[in-house]
Amino acid sequence: MSEAEILFETRGKAGIVTLNRPKALNAVTRTMVGDLHARLVEWANDPAIATVVIKAAGEKAFSAGGDIRQLHDWGKAKNPAMRDFYREEYRLNTFIKRYPKPYVALVDGIVMGGGVGVSVHGSHRAGGARLMFAMPETGIGLFPDVGGTYFLPRLPHRIGTWLALTGARLGQADAHWCGLTTHSAPAERFAEIEDALAEGGAPDAALSAFAVQPEGATLPNLAPTIERCFAGDTVEAIVAALDAGGGEWAAKQAAIIRTKSPTSLKIALRQMQDGAKADFEACMKIEFRIVSRVIEGHEFFEGVRAVIIDKDNAPDWRPATLAEVSDADIEAYFAPLPDELDLTGIDHM
């Protein structure tokens, strides 16, 4: 296979994208973001292309997220490339959300962070049996971005708030049940779906022809507990509700939350609250405000050190407790920027 990080192919009436860094779990780089955006603009304006399909090389991951180590190194060096990456990524996410043609993501294996950003906003999302969806950012001092401010609070039963705070993982059946995917299909049949789309088949019909009803969803039983425990206006209230929940599952969620960055947790909950009332573009601007402050702080770099570089899984969060993170601290992350995210011109490059 080609050494290119991202591959593009025109087959019949389909434009096909392949994320092509399988050894790096298809982590999304700045080059991939730029190349994908440019090609999507080209295909949007090409009457011969009816549908865009995005898939990934390898069996382990659709995409495990952004290239976190590269972002860490840019940030440590105060390289403006780090902020530029997020600006370009968020513009791409917005273009995918607005895309004028069907955009079909064929997703199997790990899909996290940046991988979510290039799939979940598409019109059609098919999840394979190995799907493992997560937004684990609070564990590395970051926050659930790439549009998480918009799509997470729109999941039912406060499932989005639970995912944002805990980084919980969902498999094929649960991702389908809560609406993160529109269809479930065996990954072994993704090539047949591509063929049907290339032949000009309508995405709904092409996907439905190979769709399965996945079994084993846990969310139907958990949803009432999630809705009750994650209804609090503060992270402290949510943890208290979990502690009082009495069950093993609730106690485990509380324990997980206590390992995350207190600052990231409070940012994430505020995202869920503000994002529920905002349109997609406003949500992306909120995320750019947050990330512009995060890259100047301590938590992200410490989280990446602990989880990815040293792998000691013992981050030194500062502040170390929820009580020490004030409302004013969080407000500062959400304040307007001198140079807000510009979402004009995303449909031409």
What does this structure look like?
With 349 residues, this protein is α/β, with parallel strands linked by helices. It has a single domain (6-334), classed as 2-enoyl-CoA Hydratase, Chain A, domain 1 (Alpha-Beta Complex). Helices cover 46% and strands 11% of the residues. The protein has helices spanning 30-44, 68-76, 81-98, 113-117, 148-151, 159-166, 172-177, 190-198, 203-210, 219-229, 235-245, 248-257, 262-275, 280-294, 299-309, 327-334; strands at residues 6-11, 14-19, 51-56, 61-63, 103-107, 110-112, 124-127, 132-134, 183-184. The strands form two sheets. It has a six-stranded mixed beta sheet with strand order 1-2-3-5-7-9, sandwiched between helices. Helix 11 (235-245) packs antiparallel against helix 12 (248-257). The longest helix has 18 residues, at 81-98. The two termini are 28 Å apart.
